[in-house]
Amino acid sequence: MTAGILSEMQGSTPVKEITISEFGAQKAQGILASSGKENAGVRVFIKSGGCSGYQYGMAIDDRELEGDTIVIDRGIKLLVDQMSLSLLRGSEVDFVENMMGGGFTVHNPNATSNCGCGHSFRTDGAQSPDGEGSGGCSSA
């Protein structure tokens, strides 16, 4: 009977609030290793602004603040503050490379539209704040 309970518990892995892709984890590992901060992680947060209303932000952080959700995925510690979590829940941090360079991005299932090459997003389908444009990814 105990073995049955253990196998059921092992089969029901809790869903992570936020994840990181394999390539994103590789890139983050290198950045964290060179940061000089012991036990640092990647803080993912939302701030107001951008062409759609919200912008993603990321930083190397060795502090765990009250209310933070801390997820370890692929060996990387992801820290998300309480206010940002509702907008980031279910998201995946990734690293993309293209002809313009490379950088971290967030694949967010909560975003109903985005602009600024995916750095800005909106969740409710409403118009951009203050009539701001759609932003776009230009190579100018």
Automatic annotation (TrEMBL):
Pfam annotation, one family: Fe-S_biosyn
Domain of life: Bacteria
A GO biological-process term: iron-sulfur cluster assembly
Signal peptide: none
InterPro entries: ATAP (IPR016092), ATAP_core_dom (IPR000361), FeS_cluster_insertion_CS (IPR017870), HesB-like_dom_sf (IPR035903)
Record-level Gene Ontology MF annotations: 2 iron, 2 sulfur cluster binding; 4 iron, 4 sulfur cluster binding; iron ion binding
Core domain residues: 17-118
NCBIfam families: iron-sulfur cluster assembly accessory protein
Name of this protein: Iron-sulfur cluster assembly accessory protein
